[in-house]
Amino acid sequence: MDRHQQMTVFDAVVTEQGLAAASRRLGVSEATVSRSLAALEKRLGTRLLTRSTRGVALTETGRVFASDCARLLRATDEADASANGLHVEPRGLLTLVTPLLFGEQLLLPIVLDYLSAWPGIELSVVYQDRFPHLHEEGVDVAVLIGALPDAYMVARKVGTVRQMVCASPGYLQRHGAPLKPTDLAAHSLVFCNAGNRMLEWRFPREGSPRSVALKPNLRCTTQVGVIGAAINGAGLASCLGYEIHAHLQARRLEVVLEGFEPDPLPVHLVYREGRRASARVRSFVDFAVDRLRQHPVLQH
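RE: above sequence
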C-alpha cells in the first residue's frame, strides 16, 4: 500500500475515531485498515495510535502527523479538482479562529455574507483568545490582534484597534473621572484575569510604555464579564475598541484617560500557504479584508 493510501486510511481512523468505522467509510475490511496502520507506523518508525477496548487515541506524534496528513490530503484533493476544472468557485471546509468578541462583533456578519456568496464553502469558526499554531492545529485563517510574532507569517493587515479605559456614566457621576493614570488607585477597578494576566495596565509616559500596578475590586475570567460589570457600574475597565463599540454608541459606557491611551494595536488576518493558498482561503481573506477595512472601529 503506497503512502497516499496509508495516509488516507490513517485520516479516516482519526476522523471516525475507530478502525471499524473507518473500514465502513472506506469500504474495506477492518483487517486491511489494521495492516495499513501497522505499515505506516513501521515506515515512520513511531507509534501514532494507542488502541484499547474504548477505541483509539492519538499519541503526541500522532496528533501532529494527523494535522499534517489532513492538510496534505486536502491539498491533493484540491490539486485534482483544479486539474479537472472544478475550482471555478471556492469549495470545501475552511477553519477560522478568532477571539470571541471580535468574531461576534465584526466577523460574524462577514462570515454569513461570504457563505451566501460562496455556497460551496463550509466554515468552522473557533472562538478563542489564544492565537493558534496554524499548521499543527489545521487552521486556515486566524485573527491576530497585536504585533506579528514572526516576520515570515503570511498576513494581511485590516486596521488597528484602540486600547481604552471606560466606565458607566452612572459610575463616573458618583465617583468622578480619573484625570491621570495614578488616579486609578482611588477608583474601583474591574479586571480580566484570563490567561494569568499581570495585574497592571500600561500607559505611555515620556515616549515609552509604563505599567500601573492594580488592586482590582472585581476580577472576571472573561472580558464579557468585565464589560457587563462595567456597564452595571462596578468600576473602570480596560477594553479594546471593538469590544465596546456598540456600548459607546449607546452611551452605556464612556471613555476616560483618552490622552494616556497606548498606541493602537494592529489587527491582521493570518493564513497558511501564502500564494499557494487554496481558492477558499484566498477568496475568504480577500472578502474579509475588504469588509474589515471599512469598519469604523478599525480605522485610525
